[in-house]
Specification:
It contains 4 helices and 7 strands, in the order αββββαβααββ. It has about 150 residues and is an alpha/beta fold. A 7-stranded mixed sheet has the order 3-2-1-4-5-7-6, with helices on both faces. The relative contact order is 0.17.
Length: about 150
């Protein structure tokens, strides 16, 4: 069991979202214990601001250390609600992604997102959709009533 909460119970909805990864390379922003690595069948790079567990690269989601268009797909799974500057992270993801961004956040109205002290922001579907429209062509994925999953085509 790696990381307890993820490896022991990777929710099926997350696996469905990962099947939407396109291309030969993926950047997993906020990778934590790199749980997604075994489920994507392409070149994988995981970054996280945390030192432990060890990401491939330790970096901030708002200052990604990669050239423009470095990855086909960028993952932000359960990440942006933890950030002081979520829009900056979305802009960085757009900068380094060639084709697609896949993300998820707790649904504000159903998950009581702000009850978690590590969450700085809470999102509802309409707000997230409008935010994502500023960076590409978003599509909300109906995978879980308590979590908003989305993909953004660039």
């Amino acid at each position: 069991m790696v990381g307890g909460w993820l490896k022991a119970g990777v929710r099926p909805q997350k696996l469905v979202a990962l099947k939407r990864v396109v291309g030969e390379s993926v950047l997993d922003v906020g990778c934590h214990n790199q749980w997604a690595k075994e489920y994507v069948k392409c070149n994988y790079v995981g970054i996280d601001i945390l030192r432990d567990p060890k990401p491939n690269i330790r970096a901030s989601a708002t200052h990604l250390p990669f050239k423009d268009n470095s990855f086909d797909t960028v993952l932000l799974i359960d990440v942006i609600e933890h950030l002081l500057e979520p829009y900056s992270a979305l802009l960085e993801a757009k900068r380094v992604a060639r084709k697609k961004i896949i993300l998820s956040v707790p649904e504000a109205k159903k998950a009581n997102s702000l009850a978690d002290p590590s969450h700085f922001y809470s999102f509802e579907k309409g707000l997230l959709f409008r935010l994502l429209k500023t960076i590409g062509k978003p599509r909300l994925l109906d995978l879980d009533p308590n979590t908003i999953f989305a993909e953004v085509e660039l």
